[in-house]
Design a protein that fits this description.
Blueprint lengths: L1 H40 L6 H19 L9
Helix pairs in contact: 1-2
Length: 75
Amino acid sequence: MGILDSFGMLASTVVAAIVMLIFAILSLFVMVFIVDAAASIADLDPSDGFTLLSAAIIAAAAIVAGGGVAAPEME
């Protein structure tokens, strides 16, 4: 049954990676909204490229600080 356990671990790793990618995309959208709102509160009008760049940097830092894909526990 070692081969079937390997496929199960592979499947769980793929699912975890897909879920993390979806959350990364969602966090980027949220960060773009937050950066745009903060710029408007500060009465700034940055171009869209700078807004996206700053949101991407913040989202990437949050993702890296949050950890990565974890391996399932072994019995």
